[in-house]
Design goal:
Strand order of the largest sheet: 7-8-9-3-10-11
Number of domains: 2
Bound molecules: adenosine-5'-triphosphate
Structural class: alpha+beta
Number of helices: 9
Oligomer: single chain
Number of strands: 21
CATH topology of the largest domain: Rossmann fold
Order of helices and strands: HEEEHEEEEHHHEHEHEEHHEEEEEEEEEE
Helix content: 10-25%
Length: about 350
């Protein structure tokens, strides 16, 4: 294998069985976490407050020592119990929530800050490249207080990118911005990271941010990594009720095994023996996009709640049994609460969980 081939195959980050226990605490904040991030891949750590996202990010940055497990950067060990390469020697860039720009330095000087070992022409070249990438060439001589929040965040990103680190860590970088700017910036930041072929990990509470930004998403719960996968697989093939609940919306309908598959209130689903759940007591996950509104359908459900979302309504519908399902319906189908509407089930992925 050639050197280039080898470099391509070595993950930018590799975490094996990592556990972090804060001193004085009896429960690990991160427990037996393993995953890999390929070169140029963007990942997002998602999960409820206190699940261990920031702890994991701080361990990757080199601020915390593992109690168990290892962290390798570009194939080289960076953290193991008893030995941690210091944050400034790890070649990892960090972008914080509050930008942390130097107020007395211009935009250009902020970007050049991490390039102190380079010659002046080299610094100038790299900062020019990054100013163009973040679209702030005309503001190079301004100071941070003369910039908007979104512009400051882009400068913080450019500063982290300047020394071409192995990995960039972004700790809730958009949480201080309003919703519209956040949406635009998540897209822009993704483009900037991709243009630099940079590997990155973002921490967020916001699944929409995770969906629009990440190639891979890690859902954490109580210190454990519940699932590591693409947005598509987390949404359509969640491996636990926790992930199914946390990612997207949906309901669980009770199911019963039959000769040829399984029966739920809305339909009989033909499945082979190996597609059936092992347990007889199980529920089936139904997402809003699995329920199609169809006036011609004999199956009826009553509208009990509706939320206008612009292009569509999110209807909460009551089935004959009294169970509720959700349905996304184009907003020109404006039905009143209490009205019965025709529905049908179009389920591509049958996901079942043992009944609680
Ligand atoms: N310095 C510390 N000492 C002891 N325990 C800590 C410390 N920092 C965090 N913890 C605990 O570790 C667990 C994980 O915290 P962490 O900050 O990693 O969660 P998080 O997912 O980032 O939460 P949030 O989304 O609220 O920022 C929590 O139970 C928290 O109370």
């Amino acid at each position: 294998m050639g050197a280039l081939e080898k470099m391509k195959q070595t993950p930018a980050l590799s975490i094996r069985n990592l556990s972090i226990l804060y001193s004085g605490s009896s429960v690990s904040a991160v427990r037996d976490v393993s995953f890999e991030l390929a070169q140029g891949e963007i990942a997002c750590l998602l999960g409820p407050s206190g699940c261990g996202k920031t702890t994991l990010l701080r361990a990757i940055a080199g601020f915390l020592m593992p109690n168990q497990g290892t962290i390798a950067l570009n194939g080289e060990s960076a953290s193991e119990p008893g030995r941690v390469r210091s944050p400034e020697k790890r070649n990892v860039g960090v972008v914080f929530q509050d930008y942390a720009l130097f107020p007395h330095l211009s935009v250009r000087k902020n970007i050049e800050f991490g390039l102190h070992k380079r010659s002046e022409p080299e610094k100038r070249h790299r900062s020019g490249e990054l100013l163009a990438l973040i679209g702030l060439e005309t503001l190079a001589d301004r100071y941070p207080h003369e910039l908007s929040g979104g512009q400051q965040q882009r400068v913080a990103l450019a500063r982290a990118l300047a020394p071409k680190p192995t990995l960039i860590l972004l700790d809730e970088p958009f949480s201080n911005l309003d919703v519209e700017l956040k949406e635009r910036l998540t897209f822009e930041v993704r483009e900037i990271l991709k243009a630099e072929n940079m590997s990155a990990i973002l921490v967020t509470h916001d699944q929409h941010e995770a969906f629009s930004m990440a190639d891979r998403i890690g859902v954490m719960h109580a210190g454990e990594l519940q699932q590591w996968g693409s947005s598509y697989s987390l949404y359509h093939q969640p491996n636990s009720r926790m992930v199914a609940d946390f990612i997207g919306q949906g309901v669980f309908l009770p199911g019963k095994k039959t000769e040829q598959g399984l029966q739920i209130e809305l339909a009989h689903l033909r499945l082979t023996e190996d597609q059936l759940p092992l347990n007889d007591e199980f529920d089936v996950l139904i997402r809003p996009d699995d329920i199609i509104h169809d006036d011609a359908s004999p199956m009826q459900a009553i509208v009990v709640r509706k939320a206008f979302r612009g292009a569509d309504f999110l209807y909460t519908l009551m089935l004959e049994s009294g169970a509720h399902v959700l349905a996304l319906v184009p907003s020109h189908h404006n039905h009143a609460i209490g009205e019965p509407i025709g529905i049908k089930l179009e389920l591509d992925h049958v996901i079942t969980f043992d009944r609680l």
